[in-house]
Specification:
2 copies of one chain form a homodimer. Chain A is of the alpha+beta class. Chain A is built from 13 helices and 23 strands. The two termini of chain A are 28 Å apart.
Chain lengths: 477, 477
């Protein structure tokens, strides 16, 4: 895209927000659309989303979760069936009220999520135990008319995601499914995007509207703000009762099913960018990088041109399943090319000069560390595979250490305020679990409880009564 | 799904419309949604759509077409920029007018197609020849508020499709792209869905609103009605002028770009069902079949159970990349199982009885011909692969012969009326190309011109003046 022609970043990674806005456009990941709060997803980002989709499709297949597609438009009457759910979503629903030149009898919601339309069908399909479990997933886009300020990937009025919805005969089975989904998300984040997370539950205040409770994965960004990566909801029978999703057992007794829903959105791409990038630009984990290796031939006047050898090598790498590209532009210097591909986050660069061709060597330059090493062309495939897998691992390990260093125990409200103000990351506190104490934390510090683990140790940081939770507190995206 | 528990079809394939409605539900391909004209896509159909997506992604990658995603909602002012386009789509646009509790200043169209939103961005991105060609594809859903009666896959108010949009420096390059897209669609239809087609151009009357002209692929259904499978539009400069998509050449001269757009929707799944199915139910081409082989162990009291051997075989087939399943239900007879899997269109059945286990043999039963043969278990993978590839080929060949038999030359309007009335398929006629003559055909016969080829032979079937086209005329879905 045209806007990526200008090289170099104006913003430093220290100013994360500016850096993020600039790199998204310069790298050609997104552009802004004519309607505020909506973005255009461009090829490199679409490629990453497609890799996530493929990975999850394979894993969901193993879990018995199958793909499906449900209508975009949901009648208002359906959306209203679960009252807490409706109350939670209605402030941000976009409504279709006209079609062609007629006014519709009933408003249709552009889906903000698909519980209500899917469960209307589940009610029709589920009658006996042989219809269970029912596990369907959708890859689609949803619209939520955010009133707070938007930010590409992180908070947009429309976003791509997957939403899976399962129905089970027993509570235990549903609970296990909700946990399995969380584990799947943890693998997606680790194996593909190299993002380490904290796993836990949301509080009553922060849970999905309509759920019994919500599991969450929270990542920590370099500016000390947390970001929710994916959630898995135990819906219990909250929807099966109003939607009449029930089965009759062998003895003729009727039981409402137990349900889960879980989703992961393109937001994870935003977190990947903020987490790994540096002042030179993007750093994309090799597993999802559209280009894994860029080869730059270095041409000296009067010496044999290394380009043909670079092409052969690229071909060899491609045959081995590696995404490689030779930058043959002759109006750009090697230095210009290095900067540009570094900005775009290509994990590995191979430099080949005339001497390398003579000697059968090549220089490998890692994007993450900047480290250079020499390898034999004869071992190209093995050397590149090693380097890529080492980069993938090391991005995760580095991020994990960073995350650990940003988790701090805090035992008074004053300490918490100080930690939040100085953007130290997660403050771990003991909490009694009362809504009042949770509200007090927000009112005093501006931070929210990102997730909790059950723990009966210590005393509530706010009221001093015995604690029920260890809570991770932070400002958040 | 529950409704698929009832075995057997009430409708004969002769009553295509009834048969189609019945098999779609019985086979668990779709269900009807609470909003009229919208359907729910269920796992077997979603699987087929996913195979089409994978195939096309690979082929588009080779053409340099990359995936992207553009916003669902398009401001009315953008939609209006190309007047013929707007006039063509506006009667069927669903409008978002409210969000949360606010009324929007401008109506937003739920995209009926994405030309206008994409080209607004193309205008921003394209400045010089190095920005060209620009080739982006989207997999999304669009909404078109059909006023005529809807039918699953064939005509629904929302449908899944891909839409690709390319911009080129020259007319020739755009023309070649429009043709290449048509060839790609022909391969998708042949290689995956075993659907033979007629290739041609739409008339002025039938072309896409906003295009210079439209290429089309038309298939013929067993009831003698044609169905448009995919279209590729030469947009010329019809959009680049109002949207100001232009580049400046080396000499500083400004040129508007030449564009194409092309799309294929889930409609092809509907055509596949109508074309290959029979009175027992679906016949799914092996390339896209969710299950390619079902193994049915046949149990005799007092004889060794062949189930373990069937499981081993299924495992062996799966390792070879074949989608296989053992039907181990012990409350169903083999006959019941045969009927059910035939209804669901599984291409190949393997029957294994105690004697087969002793002898190391198995019975293969083809879904398309009903033919049975005996093969050695030791050659299972090769035998199954052969059978599947033979079924795929033979479905296409049979359909192609059928298509040929349904193309008839016709030289008078009376003959044409008669041919249309008796549902003979495509009537090939000579046409002068005038709109009046084309209208006359519709008024007289109720059939439309599905596609034309340039041909200066003969005289117009309506007015008798020298012909310009050979035209394929038929009633159509």
């Amino acid at each position: 895209m045209a806007q990526s022609n200008e090289r170099g970043l104006q913003s430093s990674k220290e100013d994360l927000s500016d850096w993020y806005s600039e790199i998204l456009i310069k790298s050609g990941f997104i552009d802004f659309s004519p309607v505020g709060g909506f973005i255009v997803l461009l090829p490199p980002a679409a490629f990453i989303w497609e890799r996530i989709r493929e990975y999850m499709n394979r894993e969901m297949e193993k879990m018995g979760v199958k793909n499906s597609y449900f209508p975009l438009l949901i009648p208002e009457s359906l959306l209203k069936k679960e009252s807490e759910h409706f109350a939670g979503f209605t402030p941000e629903v976009a409504w279709v009220t006209e079609a062609g030149d007629q006014k519709l009898d009933e408003r249709l919601a552009v889906r903000p999520t698909s519980e209500t339309i899917m469960y209307t069908m589940y009610s029709k399909w589920i009658h006996g135990t042989s219809d269970l479990p029912l596990k369907l997933n959708q890859w689609n886009s949803v619209v939520r008319w955010e009133t707070s300020s938007t930010r590409p990937f992180i908070r947009t009025k429309e976003f791509l995601w997957q939403e899976a919805h399962t129905a089970h005969a027993t509570e235990d089975e549903a609970l296990k499914q909700a946990q399995d989904a969380l584990d799947l998300y943890e693998r997606v984040l680790k194996d593909l995007l190299a993002i380490p997370v904290i796993k836990g539950r949301k509080t009553e205040k922060e849970k999905f509207k309509g759920a019994v409770f919500t599991y969450t994965l929270e990542a920590m960004m370099p500016d000390g703000k947390a970001i929710q990566m994916a959630t898995s909801h135990m819906l219990g029978q909250n929807f099966s009762v109003p939607f009449e999703i029930a089965y009759v057992d062998d003895k003729g007794n009727k039981h409402y099913v137990w349900q889960t829903s879980w989703g992961l959105s393109w937001r994870v791409i935003g977190a990947m960018i903020m987490l790994h990038g540096d002042s030179k630009g993007l750093v994309i984990p090799p597993e999802v990088a559209p280009l894994q290796v860029v080869l730059v031939p270095i041409i000296y006047k009067g010496k044999p041109d290394p380009t043909p050898r670079a092409r052969e090598l690229a071909h060899e790498l491609e045959l081995a399943g590696i995404r490689a590209y030779v930058d043959e532009r002759n109006d750009k210097t090697p230095g210009y090319k290095y900067n540009e591909w570094e900005m775009r986050g290509v994990p590995l660069r191979i430099e080949i000069g005339p001497r390398d061709v003579e000697r059968g060597t090549m220089v490998l330059a890692r994007r993450d560390t900047g480290e250079k090493s020499v390898a034999n062309m004869a071992d190209a495939v093995a050397a590149v595979k090693d380097a890529l897998s080492s980069i993938q691992k090391s991005l995760y390990e580095k991020a994990k250490q960073k995350l650990s260093s940003m988790i701090n125990e805090v035992s008074t409200l004053d300490e918490l305020s100080e930690a939040v103000k100085s953007r130290k990351g997660f403050s771990v506190v003991n909490l009694c679990g009362d809504r009042e104490c949770e509200d007090k934390i927000y009112d005093t510090t501006g931070a929210t409880v990102r997730c909790v683990e059950e723990s009966a140790e210590g005393k509530c940081i706010v009221c001093g009564r015995p604690a029920r939770y260890r809570a991770y507190v932070s400002k958040a995206y």
